[in-house]
């Protein structure tokens, strides 16, 4: 009897032990009965083989298949990826590698338990909206975003999570639902329920792993229909639309950039997607395209709270066509980042909180500060917006005024005093700066100013938390736009238009939408820019009310009449959009009327302003330079302040003059053959008309004496190469030149002069 009783107890113990379900290796006494069938082998005939898998992650000679089945009636359901590796790999290694590589897949994981990592939830961006985020206990104010495809938790609280996008695949749970884990190795005839979790699961070449969601604790057979996931391809066409540079959520993520296609599609974090989850620095407020490069400027080098994206620094340089990273800089001269402007093909200027710094585009190096641009403190003398005219760079400096920099010498040549907020160049080439309630016209070469009072509204830019501001210019019509202000920290609700030609204001040109209800739409960051191709106004807004309201963001389009024509709604997130930037797709176009050959026997001019245009940039800002002159002893070729090519014959002969047209970093060159038939001035005659240089021979400082206004001065060596053009207060420092004979050429407002110069 005792023997029978003992056998009975052992049988019952074995029965209940076998009936107990394990979930990813964790014994579960709460799952009994019918659900015990989850541990039984199942015969499944799949519709695909390894050769049918389209998206492979990793590299190596071993291959395994990774399947996720949601059972949520959303199609396609059971998706399959491939994983390749060498050496040893686990089921967890495979899941993490695929989640890291494919931005569409994300998982909720509790790592470090006694059974390894527990997989609590798996999701997939089914509708392509890039809204991979989770809400815990319905907290929509602080969404949880995957880091490398993973959201970590510290408890078996998987039932508390929901997907931010209800249209995506998502399943999570532990007590009310759970992910069952099925495996199949090459020697197995059928799939079997895994007795261990993903951490302990050792993959073999030819293994299959299936994650099958048991919603509501119900059992589902492994589907016979598996859908190969198409390989993830980052968006790469950055020509048909525009960019929105994002400040991003301080304390959580570094800066980013979205691309809004003209087809209406919004492509999120295109730089991060193209660069393996790299981002910009903290509080990215500025971006600009110059040549074939995109320059992103952030206030700080990195956001310490961002564990999802790799920070890029205060300045990040990327390929404007592919978004591939070229370089990143934490240190841009010791200050925080503000702005960037291209100067020529090899040089740009960085605007910082402590001055203007030269940036070597050719060598990707941050140079020294431009003398006189610093001082005043980080929040009392910072640099704001900068523009490049055809002759100079104009930079706004807080409290000090507008700094005028000669890009040929990197020298500060003038300061226009005043409390300015921003600066632009109009279609006609005029320079305009804005103050609290005043527009100031700055002559592009003499720097003389004329003020125009804004009738009733104000423009109160914020220097305390600097942004690029809404002050914008059209490249198609002679007009300026901006958003009126309530205070230095709050924008108004009207877009103002100023007609540069008639000098008239329209302070109610267009109204910001979304002004009904408790929470209004408000501009954020720069807020407003003008599309250089369509001439439409692009306005970005967020929702007032602070906190979770800032997850609501819109982009509005207005036509040239001020009519709202389109509105795009961004995915909910704390984007804090900073600035719209437009692609530069076209080269400058030189008119067919530009001559290929001219004959000159006296000083002649060619007006270059009328001969070159650019479809997607400001034509008046195109920089014209004489790149080379094959025979400077025969003809002098210079470009004056009026963008005229001045050709002055010096002797009889032929010279090939190459003129370069640089429009926002894109360069076109034209060659002009000049046939000079007479000399307007012989060297021996120079002193007769009160033009002299001394001492000659010279050791270091050469002084030029003339009563005429010098427009351009150059020094050439014996081979005809220009070696020095820096004239300061009537003097040239030639101390760095090798000893020898040189030719000095000077162009004044009355004549062209040439004289032999001896350096000893």
Automatic annotation (TrEMBL):
It comes from the Bacteria. The keyword Nucleotide-binding does not apply. The keyword Signal applies. It holds the Pfam family DUF5074. Residues 1-19 form the signal peptide. InterPro entries: DUF5074 (IPR031815), Quino_amine_DH_bsu (IPR011044), Secre_tail (IPR026444), WD40/YVTN_repeat-like_dom_sf (IPR015943). SUPFAM superfamilies: YVTN repeat-like/Quinoprotein amine dehydrogenase (SSF50969). Keywords: Signal. Residues 693-758 form the Secretion system C-terminal sorting domain. This is DUF5074 domain-containing protein. It comes from Chryseobacterium kwangjuense. The lineage of its organism: Bacteria, Pseudomonadati, Bacteroidota, Flavobacteriia, Flavobacteriales.
């Amino acid at each position: 009897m005792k023997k029978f009783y003992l056998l009975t107890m052992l049988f019952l113990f074995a029965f209940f032990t076998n009936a107990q379900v394990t979930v990813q290796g964790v014994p579960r006494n709460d799952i009994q009965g019918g659900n015990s069938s989850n541990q039984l082998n199942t015969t499944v005939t799949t519709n695909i083989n390894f050769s049918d898998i389209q998206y492979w992650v990793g590299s190596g000679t071993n291959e395994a298949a990774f399947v996720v089945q949601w059972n949520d009636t959303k199609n396609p359901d059971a998706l399959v990826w491939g994983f390749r590796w060498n050496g040893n790999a686990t089921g967890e290694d495979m899941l993490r590698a695929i989640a890291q590589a494919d931005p569409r897949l994300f998982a909720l994981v509790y790592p470090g338990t006694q059974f390894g990592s527990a997989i609590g939830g798996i999701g997939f961006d089914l509708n392509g909206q890039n809204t991979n985020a989770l809400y815990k206990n319905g907290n929509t104010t602080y969404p949880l975003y995957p880091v490398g495809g993973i959201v970590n938790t510290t408890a078996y609280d998987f039932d508390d999570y929901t997907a931010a996008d209800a249209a995506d695949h998502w399943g999570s749970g532990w007590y009310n639902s759970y992910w069952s884990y099925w495996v199949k190795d090459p020697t197995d005839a059928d799939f079997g329920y895994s007795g261990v979790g993903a951490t302990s699961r050792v993959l073999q070449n030819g293994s299959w792993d299936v994650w099958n969601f048991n919603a509501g604790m119900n059992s589902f057979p492994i589907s016979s229909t598996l859908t190969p996931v198409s390989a993830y391809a980052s968006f790469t066409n950055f020509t048909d639309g525009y960019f929105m540079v994002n400040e991003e959520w301080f304390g959580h993520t570094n800066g980013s950039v979205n691309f809004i296609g003209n087809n209406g599609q919004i492509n999120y974090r295109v730089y991060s997607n193209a660069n393996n989850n790299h981002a910009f620095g903290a509080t990215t407020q500025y971006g600009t395209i110059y040549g074939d490069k995109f320059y992103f400027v952030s206030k700080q080098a990195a956001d310490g709270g961002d564990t999802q994206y790799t920070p890029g620094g205060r300045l990040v340089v990327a390929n404007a066509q592919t978004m591939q990273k070229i370089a990143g800089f934490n240190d841009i001269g010791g200050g925080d980042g503000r702005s960037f402007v291209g100067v020529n093909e090899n040089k740009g200027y960085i605007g910082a909180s402590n001055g203007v710094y030269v940036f070597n585009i050719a060598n990707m190096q941050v140079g020294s500060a431009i003398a006189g641009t610093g001082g005043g403190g980080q929040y009392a003398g910072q640099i704001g917006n900068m523009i490049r005219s055809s002759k100079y760079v104009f930079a706004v400096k807080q409290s000090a005024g507008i700094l005028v920099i000669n890009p040929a010498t990197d020298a500060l040549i003038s300061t226009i005093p005043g409390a300015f907020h921003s600066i632009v160049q109009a279609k006609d080439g005029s320079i305009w700066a804005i103050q609290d309630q005043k527009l100031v016209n700055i002559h592009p070469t003499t720097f003389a100013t004329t003020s125009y009072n804004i009738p009733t509204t104000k423009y109160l830019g914020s220097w305390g938390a600097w942004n690029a501001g809404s002050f914008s210019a059209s490249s198609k019509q002679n007009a300026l736009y901006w958003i009126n202000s309530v205070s230095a920290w709050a924008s108004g609700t009207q877009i103002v238009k100023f007609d540069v030609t008639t000098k008239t204001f329209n302070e109610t040109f267009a109204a910001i939408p979304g002004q009904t209800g408790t929470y209004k739409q408000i501009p954020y960051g720069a807020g407003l820019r003008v599309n250089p191709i369509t001439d439409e106004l692009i306005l970005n807004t967020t929702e007032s009310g602070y906190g979770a309201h800032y997850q609501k963001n819109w982009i509005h389009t207005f036509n040239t009449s001020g009519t709202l024509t389109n509105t795009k709604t961004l995915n909910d997130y704390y984007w804090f959009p900073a600035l719209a930037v437009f692609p530069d797709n076209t080269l400058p176009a030189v008119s067919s009327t530009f001559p290929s050959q001219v004959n000159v026997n006296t000083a002649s001019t060619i007006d270059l302003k009328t001969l070159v245009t650019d479809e997607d940039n400001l034509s008046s800002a195109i920089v014209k330079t004489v790149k080379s002159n094959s025979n400077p002893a025969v003809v002098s070729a210079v470009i004056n302040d009026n963008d005229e090519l001045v050709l002055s014959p010096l002797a009889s002969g032929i010279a090939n003059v190459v003129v370069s047209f640089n429009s926002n970093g894109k360069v076109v060159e034209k060659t002009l053959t000049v046939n000079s038939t007479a000399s307007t001035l012989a060297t021996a005659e120079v002193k007769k008309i009160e033009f002299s240089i001394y001492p000659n021979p010279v050791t270091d400082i050469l002084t030029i004496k003339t009563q005429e206004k010098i427009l351009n001065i150059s020094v050439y060596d014996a081979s005809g190469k220009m070696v020095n053009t820096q004239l300061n207060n009537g003097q040239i420092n030639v101390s760095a030149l090798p000893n020898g004979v040189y030719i000095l050429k000077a162009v004044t407002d009355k004549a062209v002069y040439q004289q032999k110069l001896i350096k000893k």
